């Protein structure tokens, strides 16, 4: 099986971090990542993915480096080949209550806990460990250097984008389907004009400033 994408070039070993854990007997390895941390509205979403070891991975990389159509195609492929996969959300009101860092870590923990197969180790994007007893390794820019984390970033991004498209129908004045809740000029203008809606993060400075 392979996750192939036209036009991509061979890159560095995207299985290095997984292999180092596997060599210690800590497999299966789950890659974990979150999206939506910097948004002014909507949930923070995390995904945990366990892939077949040493799966060919051309095209699987940081979701931000891919076009929407590339992400959609890879999301389908990842879901087909994944050994286990889970997505979790933490909503805006809880983000306001516990802060965005803790909400992001909670979403990643929930995603791991929801996997159909319990991993023996976790690769986490960034430099903050999640609150979990399973052995884990943090990897800065992990979505660019780990196939498992990159797959998680793609799945989480596609899921959250679709969710914001749906929420845009409930709150059409904000046009969430265009900016997905990020602090674009259009979004800030809508906040000034209409104020925050129920899915805005009221603890975020950008919301407070534009709505005041």
Description:
The chain is α/β, with parallel strands linked by helices and 212 residues long. It has a domain at 16-162: 2-Layer Sandwich (Nucleotidyltransferase, domain 5). The chain is built from 9 helices and 5 strands, in the order αββαβααββααααα. It has a 5-stranded mixed sheet with strand order 3-2-1-4-5. A hairpin with an 8-residue loop joins strand 1 and strand 2 (44-50). Helix 2 (68-81) crosses helix 6 (147-170). The longest helix has 24 residues, at 147-170. The model is unreliable at 4-10 (pLDDT under 50).
Write the layout of secondary structure elements.
Blueprint: H1 16-22, E1 29-35, E2 44-50, H2 68-81, E3 84-90, H3 92-98, H4 100-113, E4 121-125, E5 136-139, H5 142-145, H6 147-170, H7 176-179, H8 185-194, H9 205-211
Parallel strand pairs: 1-4, 4-5
Antiparallel strand pairs: 1-2, 2-3
Which term fits the overall shape? Answer: elongated
CATH topology of the domain at 16-162: Nucleotidyltransferase, domain 5
What's the alpha carbon Rg, rounded to whole Å?
Answer: 17 Å
In whole angstroms, the N-to-C terminal distance is: 53 Å
Number of DSSP helical runs? 9
Q: Beta fraction of the residues? A: 5-15%
Assigned CATH superfamily of the domain at 16-162: Ribonuclease H-like superfamily/Ribonuclease H
The portion of residues assigned to helices is 40-55%
Q: CATH class of the domain at 16-162, anyone?
A: Alpha Beta
What is the average of the pLDDT values?
Answer: 91
The low-pLDDT segments are 4-10
CATH architecture of the domain at 16-162: 2-Layer Sandwich
Sketch the topology as an H/E string, one letter per element.
HEEHEHHEEHHHHH
Main sheet properties: 5 strands, mixed
């Amino acid at each position: 099986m392979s996750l192939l994408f036209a036009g991509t070039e061979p890159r560095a070993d995207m299985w290095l971090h997984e292999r180092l854990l596997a060599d210690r007997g800590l497999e299966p390895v789950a890659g974990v990542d979150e999206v939506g941390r910097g948004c002014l509205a909507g949930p923070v979403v995390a995904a945990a993915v366990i892939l077949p070891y040493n799966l060919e991975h051309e095209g699987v990389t940081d979701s931000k480096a891919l076009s929407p159509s590339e992400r959609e195609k890879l999301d389908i492929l990842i879901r087909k080949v994944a050994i286990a996969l889970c997505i979790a959300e933490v909503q805006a009101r809880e983000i306001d209550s516990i802060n965005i860092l803790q909400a992001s870590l909670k979403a990643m923990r929930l995603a791991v806990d929801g996997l159909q197969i319990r991993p023996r180790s976790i690769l986490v994007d960034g430099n903050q460990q999640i609150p979990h007893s399973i052995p884990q390794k943090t990897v800065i820019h992990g979505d660019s250097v780990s196939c498992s984390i990159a797959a998680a970033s793609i799945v989480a991004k596609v899921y959250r984008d679709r969710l914001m498209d749906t929420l845009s129908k409930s709150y059409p004045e904000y046009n969430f389907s265009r900016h997905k809740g990020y602090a674009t000029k259009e979004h800030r203008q809508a906040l000034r004009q209409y104020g925050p809606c129920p899915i805005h993060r009221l603890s975020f400075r950008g919301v407070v400033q534009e709505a005041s």
